[in-house]
Amino acid sequence: MELMDAIRARRSIRVFSDRSVDRETVDRLIDASTYAPSRFNVQPWHFHVAMGEARARVAEVMALTTAYLDEYIDVLGPDGMEHAARFYADLGGAPVIIGISAKHVEDPTEWLDDTIAVGAALQNFLLAVVDQGLSACSLTAPHWIRDKLLEVFEISEGFDIMALIVLGYGDETPWDKSRHTDVATYLK
Question: pTM (2 decimals)?
Answer without folding.
Answer: 0.91
